[in-house]
Amino acid sequence: xxxxxxxxxxxxxxxxxxxxxxxxxxxxxxxxxxxxxxxxxxxxxxxxxxxxxxxxxxxxxxxxxxxxxxxxxxxxxxxxxxxxxxxxxxxxxxxxxxxxxxxxxxxxxxxxxxxxxxxxxxxxxxxxxxxxxxxxxxxxxxxxxxxxxxxxxxxxxxxxxxxxxxxxxxxxxxxxxxxxxxxxxxxxxxxxxxxxxxxxxxxxxxxxxxxxxxxxxxxxxxxxxxxxxxxxxxxxxxxxxxxxxxxxxxxxxxxxxxxxxxxxxxxxxxxxxxxxxxxxxxxxxxxxxxxxxxxxxxxxxxxxxxxxxxxxxxxxxxxxxxxxxxxxxxxxxxxxxxxxxxxxxxxxxxxxxxxxxxxxxxxxxxxxxxxxxxxxxxxxxxxxxxxxxxxxxxxxxxxxxxxxxxxxxxxxxxxxxxxxxxxxxxxxxxxxxxxxx
Length: 437
Hints:
two-stranded antiparallel ribbon, mainly alpha
């Protein structure tokens, strides 16, 4: 089957970003024979995947940036400056939020975001962030919510069906309207107040490795302010499981996998850390299995060096179905952030233990339980929703609904064809026979 040009370029960009490709002797000259139009398609892929700024850093590191078309250079430089401006605003918000929570005496832990530097990214300017996440105990949720409602934040969707592991997402309705720039510094950042880090009822997978995170917090210095957060071991566990959940829901940005590979690359020689990490994960078989999957997938897409103990864990806990899925779909669907099909259901079924739960999962995946949430104008306050807005809103929602219906129908057809093939190949794989992927 002939690979479309933009997809082929996407695979080449993944190879260029791979940590195995850091060797200056590796030849990537084929990338720079691409036309300006090809690169524009390629940047659409990297923008969606959250990789454009990491690509910019790698191009400059390898002294390849000047080999790009001039318009592409200008776009990437502008993207960097836009995101740098966003980072400045996000940092100010982050400091304000932490000071307020601390002044109210609310126990909390800051999750991901700005605190992923330097373990998961080389520079904060290369990471694109769209929200702030805080973990708050159940008994303190109301007080924490009041902190943000006093600042003008309101629930994006005050519905019980949105409650998974956090309260409905909070947004400040500034009137901002989408203009096609993912790095626009005016995009308001949402706030999510988490009361747990995993939802076994929703995902039908029991994870216990994050149950003790309150017992092992750490303190980070951010611009002179002490910020409570997860320990390094629990941060990695949470990032892994957060990425795993997005993969199961078919919306994993490749930047998550890149950050995992960066972590592997950065700590590859730190045997003490990996021993402690595996000890933290060892009490939960599903965590070990998910960890083996996500590290295996990250390495498949971006490379990275593993410590001997981590390699042994992956060898022992990567199931035949997970191994087959990585080989068959891991990179092929990566450039679309796993959004163009529902093939992740094959992975999900491998983690769900009872037959009853598997039927529940199949029903949820194949037959959507809810209509999609309206996304147009969610930042627009009520007093600014004029007649023009009210006429455009249903049109955009109908378009969104039509796209989702088309996706679900095409995915259903695709799954009905692929499922018997998948089942047959998994059985071969379990018997040690390597099928053609």
